[in-house]
Design brief:
The complex is a heterodimer of chains A (108) and B (113). Chain A has 108 residues and is an all-beta fold. Helices cover 0% and strands 58% of the residues of chain A. The mean pLDDT of chain A is 93. Classes of the chains: A mainly beta (108), B mainly beta (113). Chains A and B meet through strand 4, strand 5, strand 9 and strand 10 of A and strand 5, strand 9 and strand 10 of B.
Chain lengths: 108, 113
């Protein structure tokens, strides 16, 4: 069982829809990362957060440390948002532990 | 452009062959790492380095060697390729192990036949 659970595993939505991807973990953490992996394979770091909320353009990441849960939201989704979204946590100065990702497909 | 340069992008090896995956970064990051990505599994850490001359094993180190002679370069060597090493490999660098400034290379798709 993966220490990081992401849901859903796959998500297909129409262009313009509001998207939510969830990440749950079972241990106390220092920080959580959200990454984006495009169909070409490259991985880009989107957010690193340890509390509250961060926003970058149409992307919003939230975290509830007490509930051990984080969400990634995409507003006004666009086909170019189609990618695999990966969450990963860090405990102290340990290395990152990664989830298996959520594959998002946005249909025009 | 600043970032992590990883080569090659694709490679096919025969069982038993050896090869080196190259990784270089120009951001003066102390921390560099190698991951493999397999279907249905999260990225798994192979080896990492916290600075020049210092390397350590990750979760899945068997069959791989690394060295860190300079801050910029962190090559991954497959000693004797096996089909189980068929995977996509990513090099990454950051300011520290926790991931601040985490930057990934473009990946190497390796097939061992």
């Amino acid at each position: 069982k993966n220490e990081v659970e992401q849901s859903p595993q796959n998500l297909t939505a129409q262009e313009g829809e509001f998207i939510t991807i969830n990440c749950s973990y079972s241990v106390g953490i220092s920080a959580l990362h959200w990454l984006q992996q495009h169909p070409g394979g490259g991985i880009v770091s989107l957010f690193m957060l340890s509390s509250g909320k961060k926003k970058h353009g149409r992307l919003i990441a939230t975290i509830n440390i007490q509930e051990k849960h984080s969400s990634l939201h995409i507003t006004a989704s666009h086909p170019r948002d189609s990618a695999v979204y990966i969450c990963a946590y860090r405990r102290g100065n340990e290395k990152l532990t990664f989830g298996t990702g959520t594959r998002l497909t946005i249909i025009p | 452009n600043a970032g992590v340069t990883q080569t090659p992008k694709f490679q096919v090896l025969k069982t038993g062959q050896s090869m080196t995956l190259q990784c270089a970064q120009d951001m003066n990051h102390e921390y560099m790492s190698w991951y493999r990505q397999d279907p249905g599994m999260g990225l798994r850490l192979i080896h990492y380095s916290v600075g020049a001359g210092i390397t350590d094993q990750g979760e899945v180190p068997n069959g791989y060697n690394v060295s860190r002679s300079t801050t910029e370069d962190f090559p991954l060597r497959l000693l004797s390729a096996a089909p189980s090493q068929t995977s996509v490999y990513f090099c990454a660098s950051s300011y520290g192990p926790g991931g601040y400034g985490y930057t990934f290379g473009s990946g190497t798709r390796l097939t061992v036949v």
